[in-house]
Design goal:
With about 400 residues, the chain is of the alpha/beta class. About 40% of the residues lie in helices and about 15% in strands. The protein folds into two domains: about 210 residues, 3-Layer(aba) Sandwich (Rossmann fold); about 190 residues, Rossmann fold (3-Layer(aba) Sandwich). Helix 7 links the parallel strand 10 and strand 11. The radius of gyration is 23 Å and the shape is globular.
Length: about 400
């Protein structure tokens, strides 16, 4: 029986599938988190609180690092309490993004450490400065981004290995970290996420059925990082070509990534107001956030699913839509190109060309058989490369076992 410590501020987070799989095979699994966590069979979960608050008078470039150190210190205290109770893990799997991983090696020097790598920040070449509509802010912005990596570098220094979902995310890392980084996607349950042409969904009093000209666009929040502004600019052009299309837009009005809109406004309002005089709003449905079963039903109905993103972390929703056999139009940006091959399992368009986007959507709506062919290939890609049970989870478990064995040899 192996002893596993999982650390994530929003547990289970990326360990949603890994935690029960470890427990199911008989490992002793303990989790540390700062927030409330759902019960998982076979997993002992412990919450920890912060030991102090942040300083009010501190250099602004250090302020975020102080918050990370406070998190790391608090997590280390909780880890030390586990050690005092007799729990010493063979391996620690941690998300370092909020600082929790900073001092775990000092508490458990004998444990292997596997960190989940999400994103390493850059002033150029990735998300920042990608969109000329939202330019980088100069030296001060560059300094802030460099400092955002400081706690990550300290955490990496104590790690035996990193794991990350995509090659794009690996490539955000310094080159010296590539040899210790494994690319393993979180995994999608493709057996449950299958197409179903029998489903329907009622939105704004209208029943939507499979085969209808339904266009879907999904963000956690409607914002520029995920191309909301470019999608909205494509809609007047699309409605000229496909006036019968029903356009369903999923997403909240907060900000997940990037800058906030001007005070008193939301990005949703700003870019809707830009084009609304040219739109038939009766066929455009803003549904906010949906419960997961409704979200999946909506994707099953989609005749053209649009996914746009800056060069940034790839959304789970893209792989889910592939598994559900959606005909996909996506931005021709670095993370997307790992999953979508133009003309084979989807269509890629220039992020900055709304007309190109509108034309691609119209193509799939007007040639539904072609869309179904692309969707079928997208599902094959999802099953072959991203299936939770046959691909991703076995790879992740094997990596954990390999690191434990290597640590024992040392």
């Amino acid at each position: 029986m192996k002893k596993i410590l999982l650390v994530h501020q929003n547990f289970p987070g990326q360990y949603k599938h890994l935690a029960p799989a470890l427990a199911a095979r008989g490992d002793q699994v303990v989790a540390l988190t700062i927030n409330h966590a759902p019960a998982i069979a076979g997993v002992q979960t412990f919450r920890y609180g912060l030991t102090r608050g942040a300083s009010s008078a501190i250099h602004p470039l250090i302020a975020e690092q102080e918050v990370k150190v406070i998190r790391g210190e608090s997590c280390a205290r909780a880890a030390r309490a586990l050690r005092e109770q007799g729990f010493v893990p063979d391996i620690i799997c941690a998300h370092p993004g909020w600082g929790e991983a900073l001092f775990l090696k000092d508490v458990f020097p004998e444990a292997a450490i596997l960190l989940f790598h999400e994103f390493f920040y850059h002033a150029r070449g990735f998300d920042v400065g990608f969109d000329p509509e939202f330019p980088a802010q100069g030296l001060e912005s560059d300094q802030r981004l460099r400092m955002k990596n400081a706690h990550l570098l300290l955490s990496f220094n104590a790690a035996d290995a990193l794991v990350t979902p995509t090659y794009f995310q690996r490539d955000t890392l310094p080159i010296w970290a590539h040899p210790i980084t494994e690319v393993i996607h979180d995994g999608i349950d493709t057996q449950n996420l299958q197409p179903d042409p029998t489903v329907s969904l009622t939105i704004d009093g209208k029943q939507l059925r499979y085969g209808d000209p339904i266009v879907t666009f999904v963000n956690r929040n409607l914002e520029p990082y995920r191309g909301y502004h470019q999608f909205m600019r494509a809609l007047p052009l699309l409605q000229q070509q496909c006036p019968e299309a029903q356009i369903v837009i999923v997403g909240g009005e907060d900000v997940s990534y990037g800058s906030r809109p001007p005070a008193g406004k939301t990005w949703k309002q700003i870019f809707l107001e830009e084009v609304e005089s040219k739109l038939d709003l009766s066929r455009i449905h803003f549904v906010g956030t949906l419960a997961y079963p409704q979200f999946i039903t909506l994707l099953r109905l989609s005749a053209a699913h649009v996914y746009l993103t800056y060069p940034f972390v790839l959304s789970w929703s893209l792989i889910e839509s592939m598994s559900l056999q959606c005909p996909i139009i996506a931005s021709d940006t670095a993370p997307v190109r790992e999953a979508i091959r133009h003309g084979e399992n989807g269509l890629l368009v220039d992020f900055f060309q709304p007309r190109q986007l509108a034309d691609a959507i119209a193509l799939l709506l007007n040639q539904p058989e072609y869309g179904r062919q692309l969707g079928a290939q997208a599902r094959k890609t999802a099953v072959a490369n991203y299936d939770l049970k046959t691909v991703c989870l076995p790879q992740h478990l094997a990596l954990i076992d390999r690191l434990i064995d290597m640590k024992k040899v040392r």
